[in-house]
Amino acid sequence: MSEQDTKVLKVLAKQYRNIASASTEIINLQSIMNLPKGTEHFLTDIHGEYEQFNHVLKNGSGAVRRKIDEEFGNTISNKDKKSLATLIYYPEEKLEIVRREEENLEDWYKISLHRLVQMIKRVSSKYTRSKVRKALPEDFAYVIEELITEKEEIQDKEAYYNEILDTIIRIGRAPQFIVALSQLIQCLVIDHLHVVGDIYDRGPGPHIIMDTLCTYHSVDVQWGNHDVVWMGAASGHYACIANVLRMAARYGNLATLEDGYGINLLPFATFSIETYGKSNCDAFAIRCNNKDYNAKDLSLDTKMHKAAAVLQFKLEGQLIMRHPEFHMEDRMLLDRIDYEKGTIRIKRTDSLEFADYTMLDMDFPTIDPKNPFALTEEEEKVMERLQHAFMSCEKLQRHVRFLFAKGGLYKIYNGNLLYHGCVPMNEDGSFTSVEIYGRKYSGKALYDILEHYARRGYYAKEQKERQAGQDMIWYIWAGQGSPVFGKEKMATFERYFLAEKETHQEKKNSYYKLLENEETVERILKEFGLDSKDAHIVNGHVPVEQIHGESPIKCGGRLLIIDGGFSKAYQKKTGIAGYTLVCNSRGMRLVAHEPFESAQAAIVQESDLFSHAIEVETFPRRKLVSDTDIGVEIRERIYYLEELLEAYRNGTIMEG
Question: What confidence tier does 551 reach under pLDDT thresholds 50, 70, 90?
Fold first, then answer.
């Protein structure tokens, strides 16, 4: 036995002090290995749409309703099933309505409690008692455990259970108990949540989504480019802050920063009014899908929108000059403007030739044509104050630390590969080599080095190292070689200032042309250490245009793109309101969602989010815990426990 193994056994011996306790744990772990694997839930490209996100999370993309159908079959009506589902999703809100409208509240409590207890029994059946016990709400842990545990010694079990429920109603605790049971059902239906990127931007409530994720029982996040730019802003990076500001203004979501995060935008608003008060801001119209947007803010928001855009283009130009290795000189555009002709000279999208295009807006009071990327004194001051506000925001910092703790650029989980965008590839299917600070990386190594620098950009103490990391965070957001961006360029400037639509095009990486190629998918999986024919790739980032017949299922189901337009800004393009993926012990199911009206409509009308499910794969045999990553960990633990047993028996280690 190696010295390392001996150390492991000595540590285990402190927890399992004799043969009996070690044997009991081996039996317990071996039994867990034979339970069905937990249900995984995959979401991506949420983009601040918190109401739909919360609803999909509550209903488990239809998993809760499926459990209701399995449990009750034809014994209760479809109306009662809808009512029970709504109660599970929104217990507090539903109780308010019931208390106002129900004539016989006690009977309603009895029926609802019995049905909820039945549901708890069903959804907890695939877990060990210890796991269920850990999930129980503290106030009602003992009572729930009594209700869901079979009591063989009790002859009249029904009377026993009825007495418990009657007592709960009699002492006035039924509402609180219903809330606890409903939330427990939500928790047990989904064992683990994967968010495959882009929580932020476009929609009004990314901060609400992040609050929910921070308290969710089991979750991981694969960073999307929109998450990364917020992470850069939280680290204090000027160019990232300007990007976050511009997008918040563009989509009418400055309230996310002001009210959601408490970031003081008054200095920036004052600067925008003073600098762009008389400026032409026609190119900076607000594209808002938020029903709560206050139209009185429109004039100010367009000025702030333009101010943020100009700051962004200046700061990005400075950054690109600092890093010629980024090879992004074509994104330095302010120095290509001819102010006399009102044109700009840029490369044509369809060739390497340059052409002159007429600018839609030439009113730039802060740009010095001789030094276009320099900030004015006022711009420098406003950026310093914004940097301080972002870095001092406790809530934003807490959310970003969560993303670093629970997230990364990719995740290998239960034999599947999860990432937001793409693995950068050349036309021939080989991995693109990207230069990162003097060295070239491709495939998995590119992901790893970019994530390393992103973490340095937030956590490093030494200023030079921190700055290098922050600049790399910006590159992850918008660089041609970034796997989470995956396009030739970000045509932000062209979309604002040029009328010609061909200049707005953002050419996708060759990866997206090769998705149906089995050899390509196999190469990617092998690059990340996955050789199994059962492995899948799950990613988002590029909306699947179902409205035009595009399918999210690629390469015979080996690769799944599950961005279907959670964001309202994309729903006309996709024709639906997002895809989600559910993987349980029996197979994988893709769910296409219709647009979500509101939580209020779902509560009052008991209208669930209509979803169409597609069976992606049915497993030839039911997958067990032994087939999962947790199974690998348990197997290793069993090995060492058995070694500990042997050490006790041969006297190498003495029993406690």
Answer: confident
CA 10 to chain centre: 40
pLDDT in tens, 338-354: 999 999 999 877 667 88
Single out the residue of 120, 199, 448, 380 nearest to residue 456, CA to CA. 448
Q: What is the pLDDT of residue 629?
A: 95
Contact status, residue 384 vs residue 422, Cβ threshold 8 Å = no
124-140 tens-digit pLDDT: 988 888 888 888 998 89
pLDDT at 103: 87
- CA dist list (Å): 302 to 208, 239, 350, 391, 491: 25, 19, 32, 25, 20
Q: Which two tokens stand for residue 586?
A: 């029996």
pLDDT at 25 over 60: yes
What are the respective helix, strand and coil percentages of the chain, to the nearest 5? 55, 10, 35
- How many Å apart are CA 86 and CA 206, to the nearest integer? 24
Its pTM stands at: 0.93
Q: Which residue, among 447, 444, 448, has the nearest Cα to 528 in the 3D structure?
A: 444
Alpha helices in 124-265 (DSSP H): 129-135, 141-148, 157-170, 174-189, 206-214, 225-234, 238-250, 254-255
**Residue keyed to tokens 């009895």:** 110
List beta partners, residue 418: 411, 538
